[in-house]
Design goal:
By secondary structure, the protein is of the alpha+beta class. 21% of the residues lie in helices and 40% in strands.
């Protein structure tokens, strides 16, 4: 908030992801916008899990800090 830029949020996420070994999403995948003095962060990504042969399970993840 305040003077926080979208790039600040993305870099902070990348530092957090490096510590917690998060590889499925990175800071550049975050949609970060300022809404007045608040920062709103949204994300969306897919994870494909191979099952048997050509079959796989596709999971869609989406979220936002917007309330």
């Amino acid at each position: 908030t305040g003077n926080t830029t979208p790039m600040d949020v993305q870099k902070a996420f990348d530092r957090y992801a490096a510590i917690d070994d998060i590889a499925s999403i990175s800071g550049k995948d975050l949609d970060v916008v300022k809404n007045g003095d608040k920062v709103v962060v949204s994300f969306g990504y897919e994870k494909r899990i191979p099952l048997v042969g050509p079959a796989s399970l596709l999971l869609d993840y989406k979220g936002s800090s917007r309330r």
